[in-house]
Design brief:
The structure is a single chain. The protein has a 9-stranded antiparallel beta sheet with strand order 4-3-2-1-9-8-7-6-5, with no helix packed on it. The longest helix has 25 residues. The chain has about 120 residues and is of the alpha+beta class. It is globular. Helix content is about 20%, strand content about 50%. About 15% of the residues are buried. It starts with a helix and ends with a strand.
């Protein structure tokens, strides 16, 4: 009986650890991200993205930091364990931004596969 209880406790611990690791991976990109896109025709540009979890689905906006404050919603979001692709419209063009997890608070990627991007999680 002692052996059974020990085995059951070990199994439960393993399940809890696996569930926590899976939850952290799925929600890695949730939050605010300051993305620096390098080499654009207008020069290097900062973009602020706010990604949220809505009933298990990732939603997001490109935050408008100008006086107009008209946030641009994501038209589509594709997510893999360590990668996210954000689709949105900017200046009349459909744009995609791919970000790959680098460490806990940083990601790298590209805008339209042409311009390098680095992202930093915005801490509150």
């Amino acid at each position: 009986m002692k052996k059974f209880n020990l085995t059951l406790a070990a199994l439960m611990a393993f399940v809890l650890i696996a569930a926590k690791a899976n939850a952290q991976t799925a929600n890695y990109f949730i939050g605010k991200w300051d993305v620096l896109v390098k080499g654009l025709p207008q020069g290097d540009t900062h973009m602020l993205f706010n990604l949220t979890d809505s009933a298990g689905n990732t939603k997001g906006v490109l935050v408008d930091t100008t006086a107009a404050h008209k946030d641009i919603p994501m038209t589509k979001i594709e997510q893999a364990p360590d990668t996210i692709t954000l689709y949105f419209s900017a200046q009349g063009y459909d744009v995609s931004l791919i970000l790959k997890k680098k460490d806990d608070d940083h990601a790298t990627g590209s805008l339209m596969g042409m311009f390098d991007a680095v992202a930093d999680r915005v801490k509150k």
